[in-house]
Amino acid sequence: METIGIIGYGSMADMMVQKWLERGALDARQFMIHTRSDTERLHQLIGKHKDVNICSLDDLSTSCDVLFVCVPPLAVLDVLDQLRPAKKALHIVSVAAAVTLDKLAQHTNQPVSRYIPTLTSAVGTGVSLVAHGKTVGQEEQERLHRLLSAFSLVREVEEGRFDAASNLTSSSPGFIAAIFEEMARAAVRNSELSLDEAYEFLTYALLGTGQVLVKHGLTFAETVDRVATKGGITGEGAAVIQKQAPHMFDDLFTQTMKRYEQLKSQIDEADKHH
Ligand SMILES: NC(=O)c1ccc[n+]([C@@H]2O[C@H](COP(=O)([O-])OP(=O)(O)OC[C@H]3O[C@@H](n4cnc5c(N)ncnc54)[C@H](OP(=O)(O)O)[C@@H]3O)[C@@H](O)[C@H]2O)c1
């Protein structure tokens, strides 16, 4: 039975652990968790699953097979520096944005992979992005794939395309929510609809659209065509989006990519001064 280590127990770690337990993919006894502080979230987990082990960093590196580092990007390298060299093969998996495989490999001799989680895995869906360091073996890759498949589709993407891909897998629920917030507010400004009605109507439209895309295998363009009959009302609205959205989304990519680069420089700087 493999042992899964977790460092940091924030929203992402909680999502993963809860999902593995709920789906029966792993047993509570298989978890070893280390956090720097005692949090309500951790208490709730232990209250529900008494067999989860809370332990020191040293215990983690001696006993785990896979170790998920679930702390903020600027804390990842520090955490790796504190790990004692493992006695057996330990596959380290960092979930942080902007901390590259090269950087990670400079702070540990263990095989390292990156995994970008998505909030939507809390409902058992979404794409988990994965990239492996050079020394990660086939078996380790397969084990990570199996673990993440319990709550997501797993897709491997070269690191050079990781940030753009994260925009579509991990940040996109936030982007989609921001877009629909604006559509709801526009409905209120331009009609007698209430904001609550607008939220409800759009939420179910969003849920249904996702299901139609996946279950019927439709593309976005086909979905537009299905709803927007020639010369109809929907076509008129879709044309407004097709005209104005490219500029907005180009900006979104420019700004987010800039932010990724800033974060990488901050991580480099912090690393130099360490
Ligand atoms: N949220 C997302 O949708 C998302 C998506 C993709 C990737 N990620 C990545 O996932 C990671 C965790 O995100 P999250 O949303 O789970 O964050 P979170 O809820 O804020 O949790 C962060 C965890 O890290 C711990 N921590 C913070 N600073 C630390 C330090 N200096 N040393 C040791 N532990 C520290 C926190 O402990 P305390 O309680 O003691 O502060 C907490 O347990 C980040 O690296 C982020 O880039 C997040």
Automatic annotation (TrEMBL):
Pfam families: F420_oxidored (PF03807), P5CR_dimer (PF14748)
Residue ranges constituting the Pyrroline-5-carboxylate reductase dimerisation domain according to the UniProt record: 159-263
InterPro entries given in the database record: 6-PGluconate_DH-like_C_sf (IPR008927), NAD(P)-bd_dom_sf (IPR036291), P5C_Rdtase_cat_N (IPR028939), P5CR_dimer (IPR029036), Pyrroline-COOH_reductase (IPR000304)
UniProt-listed Gene3D superfamilies: NAD(P)-binding Rossmann-like Domain (3.40.50.720), ProC C-terminal domain-like (1.10.3730.10)
GO molecular function terms noted in the UniProt entry: pyrroline-5-carboxylate reductase activity
Keywords: NADP
Domain of life: Bacteria
Domain Pyrroline-5-carboxylate reductase catalytic N-terminal span(s) in chain numbering: 3-97
Any one Gene Ontology BP term: L-proline biosynthetic process
Binding-site positions, NADP(+): I7, G8, Y9, G10, S11, M12, T35
Keyword NADP (UniProt): yes
Family: Belongs to the pyrroline-5-carboxylate reductase family.
Name the record gives this protein: Pyrroline-5-carboxylate reductase
